[in-house]
Specification:
This protein is 43% helix and 18% strand. By secondary structure, the chain is an alpha/beta fold. An eight-stranded parallel barrel has the order 1-2-3-4-5-7-8-9, surrounded by seven helices. Strand 8, helix 8 (208-216) and strand 9 (221-224) form a beta-alpha-beta unit. The structure holds SN-glycerol-1-phosphate.
Length: 253
């Protein structure tokens, strides 16, 4: 998975991840046609996780996904140490750097180690920053930390760089699931050029215009959660758009 992220970062290609919240996902609602389209449409990664972090059905969900989309890597995006599963390919080992709650900076991580020591999961060290226009989201409610504001670009860049200097290799700027505002293009550009490492952007991406703004700002991988839950066809539209976008870049080169 690290290779996939590095390839996206080093090329001008953009990637798309589908985020599934196991607390809310209803497999029955998705038709075979959707899985067929998703497998044809070059979905890069599947993220599994939710900020509630309460679920115990993660193993079962990943096994079911493995049946439907065997070739797409499954990555745990944990809301808590309970959401770690050996069935996945990799784990975003996150530290919530935008907040000051020790439990989410290092506490949950230490608790997770016992499980991780005996697992084969690829561990992706990831600086995780909550960034939006001041919206309250589930990460805020769970972690009791506030987002950094889009307008505070220097603070956001310095926080991301602190993560880089601590050795973190992947960067995830998240506006929070279902957030009204998104991470701004200015922030995406500034962080990407400062860290020069794989940059994941998510939260509130519910239209192709917003996706395009992230792609244009040099996001390597965007994450679609909430809107795909509401309307699975939206994910397919985003994947088609990504293909078109990457092909256009290729022609320009
Ligand atoms: C949230 O970045 C993810 O952690 C995805 O957000 O659910 O709003 O797509 P959405």
């Amino acid at each position: 998975v690290s290779e996939i992220l590095n390839d996206l970062s080093l090329s001008s290609k953009r990637g798309v991840a589908w985020l599934i919240d196991p607390d809310e996902f209803d497999f029955e609602k998705l038709e075979e046609e959707f899985f067929w389209q998703a497998s044809q449409a070059e979905l890069d990664l599947i993220f599994i996780g939710g900020s509630q972090g309460l679920t115990t059905g993660v193993d079962e969900l990943i096994s079911a996904l493995q049946q439907k989309l065997p070739s797409i890597p499954k990555v745990i995006f944990p809301g808590s140490e309970l959401q770690i599963s050996d069935q996945a390919d990799a784990l975003l080992f996150l530290s919530l750097l935008s907040g000051r709650n020790p439990e989410y900076l290092i506490g949950q991580q230490v608790k997770a180690v016992e499980k991780l020591r005996s697992s084969q999961l690829e561990i992706l060290s990831t600086a995780y920053l909550l960034v939006n226009d001041g919206d309250i989201c589930s990460v805020h409610r769970k972690s009791e930390t506030f987002p950094l504001l889009n307008q505070d670009i220097d603070q956001i860049v310095n926080t991301a760089l602190a993560g880089k200097y601590l050795g973190m290799r992947h960067f995830y700027l998240d506006a929070g699931s279902g957030s009204d505002s998104t991470v701004s293009p200015e922030v995406i550009k500034a962080v990407k050029s400062a860290v020069n490492r794989p940059l994941i952007i998510g939260g509130g991406l519910d239209s192709l215009e917003k996706v395009q703004r992230c792609f244009d700002a040099d996001a390597d991988l965007i994450v679609i959660g909430n809107q795909a839950q509401k309307n699975p066809d939206f994910l397919i539209e985003v994947l088609d758009y990504k293909r078109f976008y990457n092909a256009a870049l290729h022609i320009d080169e």
